[in-house]
Amino acid sequence: MIFNNLFNREERSTTITLPDRYIPPQSLTGGLTVTEGTTLSIPVAYRAVQLISDSIGSLSFGAHRDDERLDPTPAVLRQPDPNQTRMETIGATVTSLVMRGNAYFILGNRDRFGFPQSAILLSPDAVGVVIDRQGNISYQVNGTTYDTSEILHIRGGVVTPGSISGAGPLQLQRRSLALSLAGDEAASESHVSGSIPSGVINSPQEMSQEEATILKQSFMKAHGGRQKSPAVLTGGLTYQALSWSPDDLQLLESRRYSSEQIATIFGVPPAMIGVSTEGNSKTYSNVQQDNRFFVDYTLRGYMSRIEQSFSGLLPRGQVALFDADDFQRADRLQRYEAHRIGLEAGWLTVDEVRRLEDLPTGQIEVEVTA
């Protein structure tokens, strides 16, 4: 209240009703539509989005000043949405950035200094961004207008010069996503509708359309479905089974290509989402390189956007940072070798090494000689 009076700010209710966030499932038949729901129906896309969001959502998120973490953690970082866990909120934020290129929060529960203690993530479909002739940006949420002090807008994906919003795959990669959806639907139709015949009945004599139809129906009645009884044909009729492999139909190659394209779109190494690439055998070194690539060139960008945006909600001198130490940890042998070098060089102590390994300190003494 003091903050509002000092700045002559009108206090108003922030109670709003948001549209249902339910994502409808993709229909099995009919025209293709590229939406958040249909995109997540693609297995590799679902796994890529889940992997990115869970990797960042699982990290600790805290405030730092002069390279030291503050305790206690500000509420807006510890649990931005009081109705969700921090991992759920941050994971959903990353999903919004990955899929839509934007994440919107409505800020509230301000303390006596005016800093928000809560940030409620909104569905991108519920928010409209408006810019006036003076360059002022405002946000429309279900008919209510909010200014930039009330909405935290994180831009992700591709942000073009002069754009007030980011753009994600649903906007810029619709063609590639639609191609993958079309491939999945074509493969499904070939199995469900039986568009590819399982065999051919050959007749030595010409048959009318009616006779051919009766013969087909009789054969299917006797031997179709799950029937396993042997067929008995007379009158010179012969049956030739047709065998179509997925390779013959180029289904596997097409779907592998689509999967690799989706892995490229989301910036995830193919092997991490179960996509096998021809001629690439995975070794321990390859896996380590994939993990390093994923952290440096995919996760880091999303993390930096979230960190810088939430830092603006903290008092001056404080910055919001993810604790990414788990990403930096090497395997045990490499860590122990690095510890040994540090101890022998004298710039690490035993207690410091034990703290790095999350072990209690001050319990043992070790003499290290060069």
Summary, kept brief:
With 370 residues, the protein is α+β, with helices and mostly antiparallel strands.
Your description of this structure?
The chain contains 13 helices and 11 strands. Mean pLDDT is 80; it is low at 1-11. Strand 3 (102-110) and strand 4 (116-122) form a beta hairpin. The chain is elongated, with a radius of gyration of 30 Å. With 370 residues, it is α+β, with helices and mostly antiparallel strands. The strands form 4 sheets. A 3-stranded antiparallel sheet has the order 2-1-11. It has a 3-stranded antiparallel sheet with strand order 4-3-8. The protein has helices at 2-6, 36-40, 43-57, 75-78, 86-100, 169-172, 174-192, 209-223, 251-266, 284-311, 325-328, 332-345, 350-356; strands at residues 60-65, 68-69, 102-110, 116-122, 127-131, 137-141, 144-147, 151-155, 199-202, 238-241, 319-323. The longest helix is centred in the C-terminal third of the chain and has 28 residues, at 284-311.
Number of strands: 11
What is the average of the pLDDT values? 80
Helical percentage? 40-55%
Cα separation of the termini: 64 Å
What's the Cα radius of gyration? 30 Å
What is the strand arrangement across the widest sheet? 2-1-11
Task: Please work out how many helical segments DSSP would assign.
Answer: 13
Approximately what portion of the residues adopt beta-strand conformation?
15-25%
Rough outline? elongated
pLDDT under 50 segments (min length 5)?
Answer: 1-11
Order of helices and strands: HHHEEHHEEEEEEHHEHEHHEHHH
Based on helices, strands and strand pairing, what is the structural class?
A: alpha+beta
Largest sheet: 3 strands, antiparallel
